[in-house]
Each structure stands twice: as structure tokens, then as C-alpha cells.
Amino acid sequence: MKAITNAKIMTVVGARPNFMKAAPILAAIRDHNHRLSLSQDTPIDTLTQIEFENVLVHTGQHYDEAMSDWFFADLNIPKPDVHLGAGSGSHAVQMAEIMKRFEEVLLRHRPNILIVVGDVNSTLACALVAAKTSFDGHGARPLIAHVEAGLRSFDRCMPEEINRILTDHLADLLFVTEQSALDNLSREGIPKHKIHLVGNTMIDSLLACRQKADLSTILDDLGLRNGKPHSKGTDHAAPYALLTLHRPSNVDDPQNFLNVLNGLDELTRSRPIIFPAHPRTQKRIADFGFERFFHRQNRVGDGGKPCTASANGRISLIDPLGYLDFLCLMNHAELVVTDSGGIQEETTSLGVPCVTVRENTERPITVQVGTNVLAGTSVAGIRQAVRQQLESKAKGAVPETWDGKCAQRILDVICREIKEQQMF
Ligand code: UD1
To answer: d(Cα 70, Cα 67) in Å, to the nearest integer?
Structure first.
């Protein structure tokens, strides 16, 4: 039997889009350790000799049940070892709060590797703390691994763009989802040996959960079953569109928000639009007095009966959904309209037409080969993109590495790196 060495990974999550990106990595670590425990009496290859201790840190950037807890349950993510409870605030306050609380945790645990995912404030805050820390007074610090590196919208008004650029330039290992990301990083002078085109862990989660998501009763609960009896399974879904909007540029300015709603007017009149709205978006609707555009729908109507999705030309607004319910709704939608980054990729993987209500995308592969159309944010642009997508029957293609095996590739690279650097 060969000697087993230990290495400590610290994985950070904080906001909703982090959870589906981190879950497969946590599962891959569990599987790796399990395989190692089974192979203790037999010779094993050099890459599998490292046993990982994983410390899961939740910054608390998102804290509502619907924005956090449900995702832990749906994605089978273990309870965080550390919860920082940082909460909301301005960007500066939120980042400062996370950094202050995270530094103490990092110094206490002294991990060999820090994994941060995506582009939210928690991602940058924790990478920045790790990059400047010193465990021994001589600069010893964890290797920083950034999952979903290199994406660029080239729009520095987006807080996420700032987070992406800075995190990438702090990271030691950069895991990318598409060729454009690799090209962006090379152009910015990041050495090639740090960059690994591994695929998309969010698609790992999607492929792992797709079957389970089809057991969701969300279509029945929202009256989208096309007159068929209330039952599990997803056959006979009525045609409906799914909408998500939460980007500050779209919802924080009343005129911009109005443009999006006007751009969707034809769609609203022709089929139900289901709109699980982010808390900030719900707040803006109330602030701007936009309630008239929406029909407030609960998941199940009075007396526990399914709701009707018919909303008399208004958009059906519901509270945010958990991962499996949302995946089910996305999978069976005729069209998805969104300003989210991740949903552009998920719809490409599912072959569902997507209209992105933004001027740019940091995920160009979803437009080049997938099912995404960039609508811009003008009324005419949105109407045109919706028409185009409803008429088009093209299914698009899925990038080769979005195959459900990304997390394992990431762990293989981490194992190699730890051995090369003899970090134990
Ligand atoms: C954050 C990410 C964004 C991501 C989005 C997904 C940054 C800069 N932005 O934006 O990239 O697409 O998450 O949701 O990190 N709120 C609640 N409950 C919660 C969380 C937030 O009510 O659990 C409300 C608070 O009023 C808060 C506001 O939503 O001030 C915004 O939350 P915040 O985490 O600052 O940014 P998001 O808009 O969620």
C-alpha cells in the first residue's frame, strides 16, 4: 500500500448562483475520498494518494431560505462548516464584512487550496483575503483556484465584471468553461500553465439533477398542465415562457425596467409568462408602482388546488424557486427570457430557446453554438428577439466539455498541482 497524504481544501459559497457550481466539486471530493478508502489495501495510482479534508464556508451573502437553504437541500450540499453571516449591504460594506470575517476563518484553518466559484462579491472578497494572507510571516498562503474563470462582458459597469477580472488576476489555477475565456485570459497576460479548459460545473449539476427535477409538481402547482390531471411527471405541459430579471441595470432604473416589460408585451398577450422574481426585483416593483403589469400568483391556490396560469395579459409573478422546481420549469418552457448569466448556459445545455435581455454576454458560446439570442434592452430589440426565437426550431449544440464530468477534471488538476508543489 502506498502512503496517503492529507491536503485541506476550503470551498467558498455565498450567493445563489454559487451553489450549483460548487455542489459537483464537493461531491467529487467525497467520491475521491471514498474511492481512496476502498483502495487502501491495493496499489493505487499516484494521483489518488491524497486524501482531502474539505471545509465548506458560506459567506451568508444570500440568506433567505429561497435563495440559499433550498439549494443546499436540492443539490445535496452538506451543511457549511462555517457560516460567516455577512448578509446584504452596499458592495463596499458587503465585501468588507465578508473579508473581515473570512480572514479569521482562513487563518484558523490554513487550507492548502482555496476554491472560489463564479463572479459574485463573495468570490472576490475571499480570493483577495487569501492572496494577501501569510500563514507563517513569509508569504505561505493557499493556492487560489477560480472556477468559471476568464468570462468577460467587457462592460465594467457590471459589478460581476470587476469581480471576474480581479479574481482571475489573483488566482493560481484558473478553470474555464469555454474557449473565449481561455483567449481572454491569455490576452490579459495570465500564463498558459495556470489555465485549464475543463467545462462547466453548473452543467454537471444540471445533468445530475435533470431526472429528479422532472418529479417536481411545479407544472401542476402553477396550472401549466394543459388541462391534464394533477400528477407527477412532466408530459403535456402547456406552452409557457419563463422570465427571470434581477440585474441592477434592468430593474433598478424604472425606465429600463419599463422597456423590458414593454418589449415583452406581445409575448404576455400570447401565452402565460411565469416570473419567479428575485427579492430585489420584487422590491423594485413595489418601489416603482409596477404591480399593474403582474398577476401575483402563489404556487398552489386557495384550498390547495393548482393555480391557473391565465393572468389576463399580465405576467405571473411568483416567489423565487428552489433548484429542482426551477430546472423543471426551464426544461419544459417554450422560451426563457432572462438577464442571468448562468441561465444562458443552462438553456443551451437543455436545448431550450433563450432571449437574453442585456447588451452583452460574457458567455458568447451560448450565442455562437447554443440556443441564446442577445436581445439588447430596447423595446424593439426584445420584441424582435422573442419573435425570432418563437419561430426558430433550432436546438443548438452543446459545447463538448459540458458533459457532466467537469468537477472530476478540476479535482484531477488540483491533485496534480498539490503533488507537484509537494504541499503536504
Ligand atoms: C448577486 C450577485 C449576482 C448574481 C445574483 C443572483 C454580486 C455583485 N451580485 O446579486 O452576480 O447574479 O446574486 O441572485 O455579488 N436579498 C434578499 N435575500 C437574500 C439575498 C438578497 O432579500 O437572500 C436582497 C437584499 O435586499 C439585497 C439585494 O437582494 O440587498 C441584493 O442582494 P446582493 O447579494 O447584494 O446582490 P444580488 O442582486 O442578489
So the answer is: 7
Atom of ligand 1 nearest to the CA of 342: 12
Could you tell which of 120, 153, 156 is best to mutate to test the pocket of ligand 1, judged by most ligand atoms within 8 Å of the CB?
Answer: 120
Choosing from 16, 88, 123, 246 the residue with most ligand 1 atoms within 8 A of its CB, the one to mutate for a pocket test is 88
Instruction: Give the model's confidence band at 41: pLDDT under 50 very low, under 70 low, under 90 confident, else very high.
Output: low
What would the DSSP string read from start to end of 281-333? HHHHHHHHT-GGGEEE--SB-GGGPBPP---TTSEEEE----HHHHHHHHHT-
Predicted TM-score of the model (pTM): 0.94
User: pLDDT tens digits for 257-315?
Assistant: 999 999 999 999 999 999 999 999 999 999 999 999 999 987 765 555 555 555 667 99
Per the CB < 8 A criterion, the answer to whether 98 and 125 are in contact is: yes
- Which residue has 401565452 as its cell numbers? 271
Annotated catalytic, 246?
A: yes
